[in-house]
Amino acid sequence: MRAIHKIIIHCTATREGDDISVDTIRRWHLNRGWSDIGYHYVIDIKGNINAGRPIELMGAHTKGQNKYSIGIAYVGGELTCAAAEQRKIFLLRIESAFEGQTP
Question: Is the pTM of this model over 0.90?
């Protein structure tokens, strides 16, 4: 397992209500010439957590910060209450999974 020092949260900046899938984001990134989706996880507008790039591999989500980080993106702008709660639970799980491994 590679060393993880931080978790970076992104927003897709897509129109609110657009149900963008992890496969759509993967296609956008592949069209940019990347080897895969840049994020390790994508949280959709319903709050579902979707795997993106394998966590063992370096992401392509934040220039200069990818080597020791995990990239998580949520779709859209504002989240529904249910989706926001799912995101919060997931982020807490990820944080506890890497507790003690980050400086």
Answer: no
